[in-house]
Write a structure and sequence with these properties.
Blueprint lengths: L1 H24 L5 E11 L4 E6 L5 E6 L2 H6 L5 E9 L2 E9 L2 H21 L15 E3 L5 E3 L7 E7 L9 H17 L5 E7 L7 H10 L7 E4 L3 H10 L4 E4 L3 E4 L2 E5 L5 E6 L5 H17 L1
Parallel strand pairs: 8-9, 9-10
Antiparallel strand pairs: 1-2, 1-4, 2-3, 4-5, 6-7, 8-13, 11-12, 13-14
Helix pairs in contact: 3-6, 4-7
Length: 293
Amino acid sequence: MQARSLLLSARGLLAALAVVATVVAAPARAEIISATIEKVDADNRTLHLSVAGDNARTVAARVGPGDLLIAREGARVRGELVTLGGRKHLQNIWPGDPRAIGTIRNLARQLRRDTLQRGRRAFRGIGEPWPRFALFDQHGELFLSEGARGDYVIVNFIFTRCTVPNMCPAATRRMADTQKLARERGIENLRLVSITLDPDYDTPGILAAYGDSRGIDFANFSFLTGPEQVIADLTEQMGILTRDHPEEIIQHTMSTTLVDPVGRIFYRVPGSNWSAEAFIRQIERHRENERES
């Protein structure tokens, strides 16, 4: 009887501990808000927000280092407001400018129709224009593919949580090397574009922190993110294959593409084994051919 009582007591204790653990581990409840940034307190990494909607109010919320980098007074944002350790935090922050959002949605619908119409021939080859699209860059600003007309564009796909050394981290280093080499060779009309494969995680603030931690010069280097369907259509049209993976998060192929100033693809290197010199030579040859024609 005594042994049975001890067993029941032990079971009761385990059950009670399980309840406590469940309460402790319960995720913070998120409130989706739209707000205007009234003040940026950089010292305390805090934004003072004017929340819109039925529950309009002012609130001070801590943010991540990347979000603080790009926060601007007067900007409209949307995100998830949670309470952690007794303090308000704003996470998963996205730009809230309705005009920019509308532009992205309009071009997203056109891109979706284009992908479906192309069907099995969705992949764009040499000589074809790169797709028309709009996304947000690492500053939360609107990026339009057509806005790159007049420049050479080197575009690839990466994601910030990628830890495979010879994939995304190596690709970002090569893009930075290409940026530096282009300046040394006097090529001023070059843009570098890295599109995330992980838009659920890679917000503009995350991309800003990613580039900043790697010493990226953002003057002509854009990291892009936005709606998942836009990313899916772009990867299909640019020949990138992806799949979810329990350890690597996303497994994907790699390809780096060069677009000319009129928006046509004229050079592409599959895989991750490419050099800055090879791309710069292609640009120089293309410029020479254009001068001679």
